Amino acid sequence: MRTIVRNRFLAAVLGLIPAAFSTAQAAPASKVAAAETKVPAGPSAQIEARRAAMLAALAPALHEPLLAVVADAAERLRANDLAVAQGTAEPLDVSRVVRAALFDADFAGISKRKRAVVDAIIDLVVLQLGATLHIQLRDAIGRHQAVRAVRACGTEVACLDGIIPTATMTAEHISSIRKSFAGKATELASQDRLGKLEIQGLMTRYNEAETLQSSVLKKEADIENAVISKI
Questions:
Q1: Distance in angstroms (rounded) separating the CA atoms of residues 36 and 158
Q2: DSSP-derived secondary structure for 160-198
Q3: For 147-161, how does the pLDDT look when each residue is reduced to its tens digit (9 = 90+)?
Q4: Are 80 and 100 in contact (CB under 8 A)?
Q5: Closest CA to 55 of 230, 229, 217, 223
Q6: Any idea where the domains of the chain sit in the sequence?
Q7: Max CA separation in the chain (angstroms)
Q8: How many CB atoms lie within 10 A of CB 132?
Q9: CA-CA-CA-CA dihedral for 179, 185, 191, 196, to nearest 10
């Protein structure tokens, strides 16, 4: 069972499942007030096509290590954003974090590769990171909406039962928040604040990734695909 779930997740993140960004169907708006933050549009069709082409050129055996690097880069960005918010660090740019994650993992022996190969690998990770950040941003917004909705209900069971899932705020988000924080005003207030900070950080990072992705589109696709296929 774990293998099936894991393979479905791998396929979704790599873009092999068409509805990777929005598997939930739209539902009626909740009767309870929730945060109004909207999920930004996902990567453009051009960016997705470029990402799919580069992934197709990459050896299948390297797909999972690639996702590990992307996950590491996303976590480094999250940790940096938290440290910046606490005043203990300066913000790191996305390209620098991507490069560090790749070289620390020595993905595909990148430390011994020529510059053209290194640049192509970095571009591929940037494209994949943008997709991953969008998924994380969508989830963070949904969770925050659930926090706001549960917080608005307080301890009123009828109100809590009346919270209706939406395409972004899923039933899983609502259930998780109710189970962990329903009736805990102080903790919900803390989750509300943390959620806002998380969304702000992810939004900023996603915008940075979009800028980098646009730069990738300016490069010759055939040349980069050929480089990637030889790794």
A1: 23
A2: HHTPPP-SSS-HHHHHHHHHHHTT-HHHHHHHHHHHHHH
A3: 999 999 999 999 999
A4: no
A5: 229
A6: 44-229
A7: 63
A8: 18
A9: 130
Q: Identify the CA nearest to 211 among candidates 69, 44, 32.
A: 44
CA distances from 3 to 6, 7, 8, 10, 97 (A): 5, 6, 9, 10, 30
Q: How far is CA 70 from CA 2, 90, 129, 136, in A?
A: 21, 21, 6, 12
Confidence (pTM): 0.81
The pLDDT tens digits of the residues spanning 96-149 come to 999 999 999 999 999 999 999 999 999 999 999 999 999 999 999 999 999 999
* Residues in contact with 146: Cβ distance below 8 Å, sequence separation at least 6, in sequence order: 34, 163, 169, 173, 174, 176, 177
Contacts of 210 (CB under 8 A, 6+ apart): 43, 130
**End-to-end Cα separation, the chain, in angstroms:** 32
Q: How far is CA 136 from CA 39, 110, 140, 230, in A?
A: 10, 27, 6, 31
